Amino acid sequence: MVKCKKCGHRTVLATGYANSFNPDEEPYENGMIEDPEQEEICTEVIVGIHYCEKCDEVSDAWIESPHQDGNKTAKFE
Length: 77
Ligand SMILES: [Zn+2]
Description:
The protein has one helix and five strands, in the order E-E-E-E-E-H. The chain has about 80 residues and is mainly beta. The protein has one domain (about 10-75). It starts with 11 loop residues before the first strand and ends with a helix. Zinc ion (ZN) binds near residues 4, 6, 7 and 52.
């Protein structure tokens, strides 16, 4: 059980699924905004959250998948 950082109420563990991402305009050079050449990116990301019902806020968020710490388990020997 994880408590809300703000009010201490217990949070709900939940996962969400996103499969569409829109590239933002990104300044590659100082003072220059270039259009991203990439169009909508369709890829699967699963996000985990700890949600506090009391605050109606996400207390914590992380990426469930793809795993960014793939080597973690390999290190436990
Ligand atoms: Zn709260």
